[in-house]
Every structure is written in C-alpha cells, then in structure tokens.
Design goal:
Layout: H1 7-17, E1 23-24, H2 25-34, H3 41-53, E2 58-61, E3 67-70, E4 78-82, E5 88-91, H4 94-106, E6 117-120, H5 123-128
Parallel strand pairs: 4-6
Antiparallel strand pairs: 1-3, 2-3, 4-5
Helix pairs in contact: 1-2, 1-3, 2-3
Bound molecules: zinc ion (3 copies).
Subunit structure: Homodimer.
Protein name: Transcriptional repressor
Subcellular location: Cytoplasm
Amino acid sequence: MVKRNTWQREAVREALTSTEGFISAQGLHMNLHEAGSPIGLATVYRALADLASEGDADSLQSPDGESLYRACTTGHHHHLICRNCGLTVEIEADAVEQWAKAAAASHGFTEAQHVVDVFGLCANCSSTIPA
Ligand SMILES: [Zn+2]
Ligand SMILES: [Zn+2]
Ligand SMILES: [Zn+2]
C-alpha cells in the first residue's frame, strides 16, 4: 500500500498534536483555517481517518455520534472526557481488561477488543456549573 504522506497529512498531524483533548474534524479544520492553511475539510477527514487507522491517533464517538480525534500515547488505554471543556484524562482500567477478557471467553470469543471511554464533567466544571 502506498503511504499518502502529503503536506496536508503532516499539517493535520501537527494541528492534532498541538490540540488539548479530543477534537472533531470540523474543529480541527477551523483551527487550520484560522492559522492560514488552505486545507479542505474532506482532506482533514481523510487524514484523520488515516492517522487513526495507523494508530497515530485515537478516535472515539461522542455521545451525540460525532467522531472525535486526539494524538494519544500509544498502547491500549481508556479515556475520561469532560463533555463541557474537553479535558481528557488517559486511564488504565485493569478491571475492565479482566472483565472484557472473561466475558469474551465465556462466549467462546477470541481476539476480543473493546473501546471504553467515559464522558462526564471534570472536577472543575462540576464546581462551576450549577446542577
Ligand atoms: Zn488516549
Ligand atoms: Zn471540564
Ligand atoms: Zn481496555
């Protein structure tokens, strides 16, 4: 497979790396535009999908079904995401790993994978937003 290592892709990778927390393709596209880049939205979508499929970026679905991306540490991990400010904490979850393995095995599944991300309000937002 030919790697499409274009300037667009590098621009997207750089923009993602300098972004705190998860961001949508539209959000990243807007940031790039504000920085003066002529990159198109479709290109941003494709570059993000490429980065995610090669493990260079994490992707997840927000509760309202939007794909969000982030340049993450490599290796399997989970996220706590503040749905108000976007703060993202990477967490390890041994209990989840054990449970997922056991649940899969008990149904005869092998090579099971899982995605577990927790959305909520961070401590800061919890104290500033009235209930
Ligand atoms: Zn991550
Ligand atoms: Zn927050
Ligand atoms: Zn896990």
